Amino acid sequence: xxxxxxxxxxxxxxxxxxxxxxxxxxxxxxxxxxxxxxxxxxxxxxxxxxxxxxxxxxxxxxxxxxxxxxxxxxxxxxxxxxxxxxxxxxxxxxxxxxxxxxxxxxxxxxxxxxxxxxxxxxxxxxxxxxxxxxxxxxxxxxxxxxxxxxxxxxxxxxxxxxxxxxxxxxxxxxxxxxxxxxxxxxxxxxxxxxxxxxxxxxxxxxxxxxxxxxxxxxxxxxxxxxxxxxxxxxxxxxxxxxxxxxxxxxxxxxxxxxxxxxxxxxxxxxxxxxxxxxxxxxxxxxxxxxxxxxxxxxxxxxxxxxxxxxxxxxxxxxxxxxxxxxxxxxxxxxxxxxxxxxxxxxxxxxxxxxxxxxxxxxxxxxxxxxxxxxxxxxxxxxxxxxxxxxxxxxxxxxxxxxxxxxxxxxxxxxxxxxxxxxxxxxxxxxxxxxxxxxxxxxxxxxxxxxxxxxxxxxxxxxxxxxxxxxxxxxxxxxxxxxxxxxxxxxxxxxxxxxxxxxxxxxxxxxxxxxxxxxxxxxxxxxxxxxxxxxxxxxxxxxxxxxxxxxxxxxxxxxxxx
Length: 561
Description:
Blueprint: H1 5-10, H2 12-31, E1 33-38, E2 44-47, H3 51-55, H4 73-89, E3 93-100, E4 106-117, E5 123-132, H5 143-155, E6 160-164, E7 170-173, H6 175-181, H7 185-188, H8 193-197, H9 203-207, E8 221-229, E9 232-244, E10 250-259, H10 261-274, E11 283-288, E12 293-296, H11 298-304, H12 308-311, H13 326-339, E13 341-349, E14 355-366, E15 372-381, H14 383-397, H15 407-424, E16 427-436, H16 438-445, H17 447-464, E17 470-475, E18 478-486, H18 489-503, E19 507-509, E20 512-514, E21 517-525, H19 532-548, E22 554-556
Parallel strand pairs: 21-22
Antiparallel strand pairs: 1-2, 1-5, 3-4, 4-5, 6-7, 6-10, 8-9, 9-10, 11-12, 11-15, 13-14, 14-15, 16-18, 16-21, 17-18, 19-20
């Protein structure tokens, strides 16, 4: 079964290190170069194969903090502090300390540790080389011989490698690098690496490493920059370290690179999808081709309540709420099969059986043969967003004071009522209500008290109508009622009289008793008019007739029939 995309991305840095380790396995003994890999806590994950020959300690015993057993006791505290600072700052360190040799002697070593990162930019620990100092030049290794051993080392690895002098010129490149540049080794020597082979947009970044023709102090390090190859511009991840003699003097910069162009495109594609959402709250699930979960992230466990152990090997259907039909999921998977992705909102259920809405994006991941290898799902809780949407919708469609539908929603309800009336050949009535004397009351008792009166009016109107009817506030002291499905205009008249009687009852607000009445105009669909705006206009005209007729009255726009 193929690895998931997430696993392949996460292992990229480790794959590069493994490739580098092969190099150290080949050349470590003559040049006394050891290899060391640490995790994000600073604990050892891997040592090179010559570790045991050099220190006498088994490679397995070096893992974790076991490797510290071959460090001189007097140097351990300083070493641990330097590594701790390197991990916290996510940057490389260079230090000297004493390492115990297999024969029991102590040897000063140079330890160059660089920060390593995943293609996504996430810190992934440290990678380091440990070089034994000459201690009386054991083995008689001269500076030139040491450099040549390192160059031999570069030639034997399956990674692009180039050594650059502090003036920016190429002092060595391996066959992989020569093939990429489509030139032989000799043709590259002495050329300006930066001017001729680094992509223009990255030259300043690389040039800063050798500014002033002196050994840079920022190495070892891992950086990414593009180079010009026979196939065009390619993005490489480079492990940079200083090539030193055994007196610790730097002589050039070794750059080991792996082409991560395709990997970066893949990661950028996933990141682009993720950036649609708030990445700090997103959950991720990777499934195999059979849709069995192979990986989940921490956000998944926080959001769903399922631990990794709960989820691994399960079908994501464990999250289903039961609120969607089988047809819904059939349509979703058809879209995934045909288009390679699907996005939308679904209702899911947590482990504690609580329900929540989420935004879900599912993408197909294919192997090199174009076959489906995995599915990647990214989702996050949209409860707050939906609550905000509901709030905004309410503000847009409902009166803030009374909670009744406002003019915008009334217009929509009128259009719906007309559509139903036309389809079912039904009548409905529109009652336009205006309070009599409200302005005087408002002026006398103040607006806060007037607002309480309007709230009470809204409650009384809602108590009169049926559930199928609508009461809305147009603004000020004007209200509208839609009486759905009436048989005769007289039915609307009866309701209007009830409204007049209800609104004429005294209003007790605080310690004050207030008296009001109402005038109502009635328009009938389709007897009078058949358009929403016309219904409002004709009912409004009828209401003014009621006011001019003495108030506290009901008037119809047209004939009552």
